[in-house]
Amino acid sequence: MLKDITVHVDAGRANGARVDVACALAKAQGARLVGVFVITPPDIPPYLESQVGNEVIEAQHENARAEAHAAKAVFEKAAAGMGVEHEWRITEGITADVLAQHVRYSDMIVVGQNDPDERLFTGGGAMPDELIMGAGRPVLVVPYVGGYPTVGSHVMIAWDASVQAARAVKDSLDILRQAQRVSVMVINPDSNAAGGNPLPGADLATYLARHGITVDAQHINASDIDPANMLLSRAADEGIDLMVMGAYGHARWREIVMGGVTREFLLHMTMPVLMAH
C-alpha cells in the first residue's frame, strides 16, 4: 500500500477536483497526504525589470499568499472530510523543481494537466512535463476539465514493453490490486518485445497474476491510426477511469517537435493518467 502521497495545490479552477482525487486515493490506500502550494517568482520580462518597482513585486507576493490561504482551506476541508491524515506546506520557487524535491520523500504525486488558460497557476509550460521527467516517482496527472469521483476502479495499461512502461506498471501495483478491472492494451505489437509468450501483453498478464491481479490482454494492429488517439478512444469505450503508461520513451524534445504518445496524452487526456519515466 502507498504510505505517502503528495498533491500539488494551486489557485487554478481545477484545483478542487485534483484535491478530491488525491484525497480519495489517500483514503483508499490508507496513506498520508501532503498538500504543497508553490509561490512562483514574478513573471517579469527582463526588459521591464528595471521599470518595475518593489511595490509591484510585493503586491504580487501578497496576492500569492492570499491565494495560498484560500487553497489551503480547500485542501484541509477535503482531507478532513475524507478522514485523511494530512499536512500542508507552502514554499517558493519554480513549480516543477520544488515539487520534484518534495516528492522524493513520497510514493506518488498528484498534479494537474497544463491548462492553457491558466499557465500562471499551473507552473507554465514546464508542468507537468518537466516534473514527470525529473520526479523519480510516479506522477498522477488529472485533467483540468471535469470531475473524477472514481479513479482506479477500471484501469487500462498502455503496454509497449519499454523501460518506462515497466516502471509505470511497477509503480501502480498498489492501485492495480484494488481495481475492479484491469486491461492491458498493446497498440501495433512488436513481436520482438515478447518475453516467453508470443501473444501481445500475455507476459505482462502473467507477471501481474503473480501479484494477485487478474487482467485481460488486448491488442490492436492499426498502423495508420495515431496510437494516442486509439488508446483514448478505447478507454472511452470501456469506461476506463485511470490510464497507466510510461512517459517519454523518446527524447522529450523529439516528442515536442514531432509528436508522440506522451505529448498527445498530456494535451488531450480525458481521464487521469499515471505516468512514470
From TrEMBL:
Q: What is the lineage of its organism?
A: Bacteria, Pseudomonadati, Pseudomonadota, Alphaproteobacteria, Rhodospirillales
Q: InterPro entries recorded for this chain? A: Universal_stress_UspA, UspA
Organism this protein belongs to: Varunaivibrio sulfuroxidans
Q: Which CDD domains match?
A: USP-like
Question: Which residue range or ranges hold the UspA domain?
Answer: 1-143, 154-276
Family the UniProt entry places it in: Belongs to the universal stress protein A family.
- Supply the name of the protein: Universal stress protein family protein
Q: Which Gene3D superfamilies does the record match to this protein? A: 3.40.50.12370
The record's annotation in PANTHER family points to: STRESS RESPONSE PROTEIN NHAX, UNIVERSAL STRESS PROTEIN HP_0031
User: Which SUPFAM superfamilies does the protein's record reference?
Assistant: Adenine nucleotide alpha hydrolases-like
